[in-house]
Design brief:
Elements (H helix, E strand, L loop, with lengths): L9 E5 L5 H8 L3 E5 L4 H11 L20 E4 L8 H9 L15 H11 L3 E7 L9 H12 L2 E9 L9 E9 L36 H16 L8 E2 L14 H4 L4 E2 L8 E2 L2 H7 L12 H10 L3 H25 L12 E4 L8 E3 L1
Parallel strand pairs: 1-2, 1-3, 3-4, 7-8
Antiparallel strand pairs: 4-6, 5-6, 8-9, 10-11
Helix pairs in contact: 1-10
GO molecular function: DNA (cytosine-5-)-methyltransferase activity
InterPro entries: C5-MTase (IPR050750), C5_MeTfrase (IPR001525), C5_meth_CS (IPR031303), SAM-dependent_MTases_sf (IPR029063)
GO biological process, one term: DNA restriction-modification system
Length: 360
């Protein structure tokens, strides 16, 4: 249910993906006035659920094309900064972080729009490793740029396991304009206990196509055994649906083999992977969210998404904070209209006829 606000805040949805951030902010009473997403399959999912197709690559969009807004939201590309992504790129001798010319410099597009549009606030989301990437230099650059643009920053790494049965750590950066919000006392949500259970997201009946083939299951077992001998934890994650469990992090590569989250099956069957709908639930999407792309694309989309109920709480806290300032400003500028009263003044307390006498 949409929360009533004293002011209708407007936001833009950059690097929109499939619209998880939009769901969160609209649930908090804000209005989306612009969205941008370059992936054509994400655009399809977004359009099916919100009735409009996002604009394309943010690098091709002039800030003058964007309507005025109060809050900028962006979950800019994670891969150049993720632990897995950095390890892979290093092993292949490829660039990562800001040196990744395709995705690593997209933060500067966000900074460009913030500079030109000067919004009241913003919410940025990325992988936990952003803070430690390149020995902290990457995050130092990001923080300095945002501070120089006139914003106080609130930064926190939050594990979504307090909202969904999944271990998923992400860094959130909330910024407020220093000139509008001088007292920076914003609080992130800190929910630790999750009421939803892993088995609650699972369907009772699942198509056999989600069961691993004998060949793939044998390969995953061999791979895990090999790495166990080396003393590391690489390998599949197998969960019992009859128990309460917290899953590993759902990733965009889940479509390849589903190895990070496999589910035991009865009757001697091989484990199965999650269905796209189960992945949606694991990310906090309700069942009325439309999935109209292939399984491969759906796995990528949910693996790249954010946890909707967590972001909803952040959005609510942001708008509560801004709304409080809005009300204080409104009260401080209220002028009480001058009322002229035609007072009649007593001349004598004790008139001769017993009735009070007035001057008019």
């Amino acid at each position: 249910m949409e929360k009533k606000r004293h002011y209708k805040y407007k936001f833009i949805d950059l690097f929109a993906g499939i619209g998880g951030t939009r769901i969160a902010f609209e649930a908090s009473g804000a209005e989306c006035v612009f969205s941008s997403e370059w992936d054509k399959f994400c655009q399809l999912t977004y359009e099916k659920n919100f009735g409009e197709r996002p604009s394309g690559d943010i690098r091709d969009i002039d800030a003058s094309q964007i309507p005025n807004f109060d809050i900028l939201t962006a979950g800019f590309s994670c891969q150049p900064f993720s632990i897995a992504g950095v390890s892979k790129e290093r092993s292949l001798g490829r660039k990562h972080g800001f040196e990744d010319e395709k995705q690593g410099n997209l933060f500067f597009e966000i900074a460009r729009i913030i500079k030109e549009k000067n919004p009241k606030a913003f919410l940025l989301e990325n992988v936990k490793n952003l803070k430690s990437h390149d020995k902290g230099k990457t995050f130092e650059i990001i923080s300095k740029i945002l501070n120089d643009l006139g914003y106080d920053l609130n930064i926190k790494v939050i594990d979504a396991r307090g909202y969904v049965p999944q271990h998923r750590e992400r860094i959130f950066i909330v910024g407020f304009r220093k000139d509008l919000y001088p007292q920076n006392v914003f609080n992130f949500p800190d929910k630790l206990n999750n009421e939803s259970r892993f088995r609650d997201i699972l369907d009772d009946t699942v198509d056999h196509k989600y069961t691993l083939s004998d060949k793939l299951w044998a390969y995953l077992q061999e791979y895990k055994a090999k790495h166990q001998k080396k003393g590391n934890g690489f390998g599949f994650g197998l969960l019992d649906p009859d128990k309460d469990n917290i899953t590993r992090t759902l990733s965009a590569r889940y479509h390849k083999d589903g190895s990070e989250i496999l589910i035991k099956q009865k009757g001697g069957s091989n484990p199965r992977r999650l269905t796209p709908r189960e992945c949606a639930r694991l990310m906090g999407y309700r069942d009325n969210f439309k999935i109209t792309v292939s399984d491969t694309q759906a796995y990528r989309q949910f693996g790249n998404s954010l946890v909707v109920p967590l972001v909803t709480e952040i959005a609510e806290n942001m708008i509560d904070f801004m709304d409080e300032y809005y009300m204080q400003k409104e009260l401080s500028t209220v002028t009480i209209p001058h009322i002229t009263i035609n007072q009649k003044v007593f001349v004598s307390d004790k008139p001769s006829d017993g009735k009070p006498v007035y001057n008019s």
